[in-house]
Write a structure and sequence with these properties.
The chain has about 250 residues and is of the alpha/beta class. About 45% of the residues lie in helices and about 15% in strands. The chain folds into two domains: about 170 residues, NAD(P)-binding Rossmann-like Domain (Rossmann fold), CATH 3.40.50; about 60 residues, no CATH class. It is built from nine helices and seven strands; from the N terminus they run E-H-E-H-H-E-H-E-H-E-H-E-H-E-H-H. The two termini are about 30 Å apart.
């Protein structure tokens, strides 16, 4: 792990699915150096090369050893075992930033890394990723849920801003509820659109997805406007939730 100049970080990415390479590319565009990415399948290797040309494809252990910031972009059900396994092998380093992208998990899943002196953060972009460059454009209109110990929150917020997105603080204890809200919006909208497209297809309407797209977008914009008006500004403040201190410091946010 070698320090970068002018506050730039050496970033290692574990996971070459739809999320990791995109976030890595966004951070690289902000001046950080991607020192490596782990990719197993041929498809993930191709995606890594497309999004991060020239970035070394390494083992997970090598990625962690070389990085000042480790981005863990793996499925929710693999995260806990990955973090613990790397702790068992002594991979985590004191002062190393460890960021996971799961909406479900908060800071507890990173406790083994914390035990080795690493600094835990959770940053989840509220966005459905394609794993392509189009996500870099969409990221500029997205919000990212940041969960971190209070002294580290500015670092998480700064990383989000550098990616072009907007940060929103979510308290550690509120992470499961946040994940539920994200899943509800994603799964419900996908199900409704799929059903509507199928109904139009049954009627013989050509290109039903394109026909219904403007309606879906305008209806969603209107629904969001109505929802925000009914809630009112300042009614929900996930960052301001009061929770007892945790082992991670501060209020657990």
């Amino acid at each position: 792990m070698s320090p970068q100049q002018s506050g730039r970080l050496g970033i290692g990415i574990v996971g070459a699915g739809h999320v990791g390479p995109v976030m890595g590319a966004a951070l690289a565009a902000a001046g950080h150096a991607v020192v490596g990415i782990s990719a197993v399948s041929e498809r993930s290797r191709d995606r890594a090369e497309a999004m991060l040309p020239g970035a070394p494809v390494l083992t997970v252990q090598e990625v962690v050893e070389r990085s000042e910031l480790v981005l863990l972009a793996v499925p929710d059900d693999q995260l806990e075992g990955l973090v613990q396994g790397l702790a068992t092998t002594g991979a985590w380093q004191a002062g190393q930033l460890v960021v996971h992208t799961s909406p479900v998990h908060g800071l507890e899943v990173l406790r083994p890394a914390l035990g080795a002196g690493a600094i835990p953060l959770a940053i989840h972009p509220a966005l459905t990723f394609t794993g392509t460059t189009i996500d870099l454009v969409r990221l500029r209109e997205a919000w990212c849920a940041v969960t971190a110990p209070v002294p580290v929150q500015p670092i998480g917020q700064a990383l989000v801003v550098e990616m072009g997105a907007e940060p929103v603080l979510v308290a550690d204890a509120d992470r499961p509820r946040y994940a539920e809200a994200v899943a509800t919006a994603t799964e419900f909208s996908a199900a409704i659109v799929t059903q509507s497209v199928a109904m139009l297809a049954e009627l013989g309407v050509p290109e039903p997805g394109r026909v219904i797209a403007p309606l879906v977008r305008s209806a969603m914009d209107r629904a969001l406007g109505v929802a925000e008006a009914s809630v009112g500004p300042g009614t929900i403040d996930v960052a301001g939730s009061v929770h007892p201190p945790t082992a991670f410091g501060g209020s657990g946010a």
